[in-house]
Amino acid sequence: MRLLYFSLLFTTMFVHAQKPKEVLNWINTAQSENKNFYFEIPFIYRNDEIVIQVRIGNQTYDYIFDTGGYNNITDAIQEKNNFPILTKQTVGSSNKIKKEINIVKLDSLHIGQLSFHDLAALQMNFDESPTIKCTIDGGLIGASIIKNYVWQIDYPRKKIIVTDQIGKITNLQKAIKVPVTFNNRLMPYIDAKINGKKEKMMFDLGSTTLFSITEKSAKKHDTENAHEIIGGGTEGGNGTIKESIYVLNSGKVEIKNLYYSNKPVYYTSTNNESLIGNPIVKDYIVTLNFKDDEMYFLPIETADEGWMNYGFTLKYDNGKTKIATLLKGSTAEKAGLSVEGIIEEINGKKIDCLDFCECKKSYSILLEGKNEIVLQLNKDGKTQQIRLAKQKIF
Length: 394
Hints:
The protein is mostly beta strands.
């Protein structure tokens, strides 16, 4: 039930003497000397993100492949390389937290054999974004690099094919072709229908939720039957905020001839875009041919209908495992779980993870792997055992 958005969106404040169009032109430009190429790039899938290796200077870093973000580097990479600063800029992450950052000019950046030179990048600090820090030690490969080439994300083989010629991709005959439009920041949008209602949605591979919409869009649907997530919050590139999260039943989702049924659609008051997120790559081999304004979806397997969930998530907090979020009205809440409740054992075993990142991985395996779980709680100094089965929410 974690809601994580990771797209960085420009705000309207500019500093120094640079004009908005000039700054945007820097960010939107990514030049490569490679021509007539076909490269295969391995990736790992970590914390629901596509993570690839990127070389900057003489060091290689883990980067998120993000269609909804900008190219960026961390403060640590900037300190090591001392790239020229083009300007300063105020940016807002998708949960509306704003920060002033540097825009720097990288002399080179390499993704496997694909090379870029004189590349503008945002200099970011992810210290207040714990999930991102568990996922990468670099930054984002974003829209300006992705826009110019063809990228095929093959989840079963954990491989990305990148080429400058769509004809080099050989498995598109049975794929579903979907048209794409772009805003002036090169972010991709596709038309969808959620329960019969039209929705223009950003295709954002930096979002770890399959479907999310704005609060305004949610009002077109049956919000009276929305499920509230207690203790929720959103994490973006500029930090984390606590806020109410709500979940709607999507009914039928249509993206041209691509369909999902009864999937969760998340919304909060800070959502500033409706998004299709990263989990779609588990159901389809996705080919991005953004230079020709199109995408292709080749089915991997039929997606399961509905939403099965334990109704809670876990977090590591100062040496303790606690209940992070709770689905209001779920069997977990009715069984006595509460936000911030302390968990001493899971399935009869003491919890032996020792830090936020290690525990996050352990919790994910526990909550996704089985259909039944036994929790031992410390409630008011007394031990209580609760056995829960996954619940079909809808």
